[in-house]
């Protein structure tokens, strides 16, 4: 087993002795992950000083008899103040610690397949007196994430599994989740997307490697939050927001037309059969979701109304590798899952002061267009020795179904919001059914060419957007006026189903996967 205690990198760096007191070896190391077997090396973080130049380098080293460097930072220039014999502090924050922090972030982003090296990363100057704890936590989680990726891609196989299990456990804990949320706020939305795609590409490769090696371990037992799912909630200025990311390969399998699937990694290994190529395309995507509600508090005579409206529900399936790799190893990026059901549940966690809950409608019925056409054709054929009259009759019925059906319901004081995708031909729910083989081969079926058809139920990128202009009906909780001035918690639970039916590729394979998330949202009753 690897060591289960992960060091505080930020404090270790800041508590190092002054550079003028370092030994002539010019190297200082900290063990990051060790093995119980004395025959296996440890992974260390090493600081190296060049005695000829005023620069430092940080490296992650596999401590074999002949050490192997797995990652090395950019050279960091030591300030003249730090080189002074009168300077009794450790490494300077502005010239060493913050540039190193930025280096961690840049290198995490570089592990992504669709990175853009031209994008700029900018941070405001950090006020250490007021936010030292936040800087410490975000610095450590940035390094931990980088170390996670380095272990997946660079670490010796004998050390990889135990170290990854250790890092995963630390990324899962509450402190790391909180720090990751702070880091995402610092990065901003665009870099957050790139960060999560880089991390989830690594997670996908990790799971693919384990399954390719024949490890029969369920995905949910093997990969836990935040490795499979990273989500966070924001409550501010009349807005509730939940952001979530999950690699497709880590989602729970609800149904499949095959009893087993073949999963491949991105390591080139020769030719693949058609099933492997299809699975590559399906696996190397991630779910990106946003749930946004507007809320307001409306005081009445003897009670207070908490009114919540849908602002935006967005769900996208985004590729984790570039188009070239999708075409070479897979069958193209157009073969991917699509959202087939979204279910949200809003519940006040403390219900002592809650009086009632009301929703707007039980169901939004599909649009129906019924047409009946009858035709009679007649003809006279003189050469026929019998009566030369030919008559035929036909009848045509057409019906148009709105693909997405929206329903609201109440259970206790919980409000349930559900969106269901229906097959526009037979009206069946997509997430719980599959088309016939004849329909799968029919080039005119609605789910064929579903990202380019004018009648597509998705955006051109393959996602869905449910906006307040169409789904803006409100949910209202009546709360006792005694709750005025208090902060109430609402729990939001969500389930998202993604389904694959063939798009352009000729196959009869279908599957549906499901993701569940849960977050807490706050609301001040005033």
Question: In words, what does this structure look like?
Answer:
The chain is α+β, with helices and mostly antiparallel strands. The protein folds into two domains: 1-228, no CATH class; 231-367 and 403-526. The chain has eleven helices and 20 strands. The protein has helices at 9-14, 93-110, 128-154, 157-172, 174-187, 189-212, 219-222, 274-283, 323-329, 437-441, 468-471, and strands at 27-33, 43-49, 55-62, 68-72, 76-77, 230-236, 239-247, 252-256, 285-299, 303-319, 338-348, 354-358, 371-380, 389-398, 404-411, 414-421, 464-467, 474-480, 487-500, 511-524. A hairpin with a 2-residue loop joins strand 6 (230-236) and strand 7 (239-247). The radius of gyration is 29 Å and the shape is flat. The protein starts with 8 loop residues before the first helix and ends with a strand. Residues 216-227 and 259-272 have low confidence and may be disordered.
Task: Describe the SSE topology.
Blueprint: H1 9-14, E1 27-33, E2 43-49, E3 55-62, E4 68-72, E5 76-77, H2 93-110, H3 128-154, H4 157-172, H5 174-187, H6 189-212, H7 219-222, E6 230-236, E7 239-247, E8 252-256, H8 274-283, E9 285-299, E10 303-319, H9 323-329, E11 338-348, E12 354-358, E13 371-380, E14 389-398, E15 404-411, E16 414-421, H10 437-441, E17 464-467, H11 468-471, E18 474-480, E19 487-500, E20 511-524
Antiparallel strand pairs: 1-2, 2-3, 3-4, 3-5, 6-7, 7-9, 8-20, 9-10, 10-17, 10-18, 11-16, 11-19, 12-18, 13-14, 15-16, 19-20
Helix pairs in contact: 2-3, 2-6, 3-4, 3-5, 3-6
């Amino acid at each position: 087993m690897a060591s289960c205690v992960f060091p505080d990198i930020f404090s270790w760096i800041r508590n190092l002795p002054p550079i003028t007191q370092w030994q002539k070896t010019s190297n200082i190391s900290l063990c990051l992950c060790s093995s119980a077997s004395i025959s296996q090396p440890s992974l260390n973080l090493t600081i190296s000083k060049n005695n000829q130049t005023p620069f430092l380098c940080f490296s992650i080293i596999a401590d074999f008899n002949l050490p192997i460097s797995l990652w090395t930072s950019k050279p960091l220039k030591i300030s003249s103040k730090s080189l002074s014999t009168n300077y009794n502090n450790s490494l300077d924050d502005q010239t060493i610690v913050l540039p190193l922090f930025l280096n961690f972030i840049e290198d995490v982003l570089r592990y992504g397949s669709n990175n853009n090296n031209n994008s700029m990363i900018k941070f405001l100057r950090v006020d250490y007196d007021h936010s030292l704890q936040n800087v410490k936590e975000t610095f450590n989680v940035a390094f931990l994430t980088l170390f996670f990726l380095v272990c997946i891609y660079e670490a010796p196989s004998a050390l990889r599994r135990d170290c990854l299990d250790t890092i995963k456990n630390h990324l899962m804990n509450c402190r790391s989740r909180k720090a990751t949320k702070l880091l995402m706020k610092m990065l901003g939305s665009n870099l957050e997307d790139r960060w999560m795609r880089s991390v989830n590409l690594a997670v996908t490769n990790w799971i693919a490697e384990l399954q390719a090696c024949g490890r029969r371990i369920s995905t949910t037992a093997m990969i836990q939050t935040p490795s499979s799912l990273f989500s966070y909630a924001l409550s501010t200025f009349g807005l509730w927001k939940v952001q979530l990311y999950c690699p497709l390969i880590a989602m729970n399998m609800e149904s499949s037309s095959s009893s087993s699937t073949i999963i491949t990694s991105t390591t080139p290994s020769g030719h693949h059969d058609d099933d492997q190529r299809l699975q590559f395309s399906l696996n190397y995507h991630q779910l990106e979701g946003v749930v946004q509600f507007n809320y307001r508090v409306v005081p009445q005579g003897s009670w207070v109304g908490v009114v919540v409206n849908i602002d935006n529900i967005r769900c996208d399936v985004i590729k984790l590798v570039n188009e070239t790799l999708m075409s070479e190893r897979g069958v193209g990026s157009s073969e991917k899952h699509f959202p087939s059901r979204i279910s949200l549940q809003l519940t006040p966690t403390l219900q002592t002061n809650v009086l009632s809950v009301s929703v707007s409608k039980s169901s939004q019925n599909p649009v129906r267009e019924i047409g009946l056409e009858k035709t009679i054709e007649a003809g006279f054929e003189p050469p026929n020795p019998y009566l030369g009259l030919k008559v035929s009759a036909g009848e045509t019925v057409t019906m148009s179904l709105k693909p997405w059906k929206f329903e609201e319901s109440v259970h206790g004081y919980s409000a349930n919001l559900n969106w269901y995708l229906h097959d526009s031909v037979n009206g069946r729910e997509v997430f719980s059914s599959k088309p016939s083989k004849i329909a799968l081969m029919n080039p005119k079926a609605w789910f064929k060419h579903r990202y380019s058809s004018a009648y597509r139920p998705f955006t051109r990128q393959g996602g869905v957007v449910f906006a307040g202009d169409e789904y803006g009906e409100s949910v209202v909780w009546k709360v006792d006026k005694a709750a005025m001035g208090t902060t109430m918690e609402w729990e939001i639970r969500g389930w998202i189903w993604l389904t694959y039916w063939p798009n352009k590729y000729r196959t009869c394979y279908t599957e549906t996967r499901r993701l569940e998330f849960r977050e807490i949202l706050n609301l001040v009753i005033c």
